[in-house]
Amino acid sequence: MNDGFHAQPLSADRWGDFEAVMGPRGACYDCWCTYFRLVPAERKSFTGSEKKDFMRQRVNEGPPPGLIGYLGERPVGWVQVGPRADVPNWNSPRTVSRPLEEADAGDPAVWAVSCFFIVSKERGKGLSHRMLDAAVAHARTAGARVIDACPIERTKQSKSVGLYVGSRRIFEAAGFSEVASRKEGRPLVRLVL
């Protein structure tokens, strides 16, 4: 498919592209992709603009917390990918995404793909597959040893907001295998690089 798709790490100079993908409400209800970065009490106390500021500061500090996907020059998608330690709430002992081994939470070679967001008019066109492929390539280049994810098995609608964690089928297509099942419909999957 030669539609000009490519993905680039989210750095400070691409912040405007991140804003374009997230839209005026910060994607999922003013989240600004902070759901796994902030503990629940803190996240709930933040306004949408405070979450946006938090994420902008994180991007400015680096390293890139994920990738922006483009069709040509137009930003159309986001995937949050990086070491598990970068998304501390993803490692909470109370979550289905918690690590297999406690040490994985702080191991810089154990990465996570924790969130996706595709602009609404581009959903259902296979961009999540392409974003995941780019995330895997990015993780491999950065020295990741394994990548974990905790996708959703199925949703009622193909364009459901619940797909922010990705669908199981895109991870299976990319070679991820289930390594734990802590809640029906939300497997922990892993790709060994």
TrEMBL record:
Keyword match Transmembrane helix: no
Pfam families given in the database record: Acetyltransf_1 (PF00583)
A Gene Ontology molecular function term of the record: acyltransferase activity
Residue span, N-acetyltransferase domain: 24-193
EC class name: transferase
Gene3D superfamilies cross-referenced by the UniProt entry: 3.40.630.30
EC numbers, comma separated: 2.3.1.-
UniProt keywords, alphabetically: Acyltransferase, Transferase
Name this protein carries in UniProt: GNAT family N-acetyltransferase
UniProt organism field: Ciceribacter thiooxidans
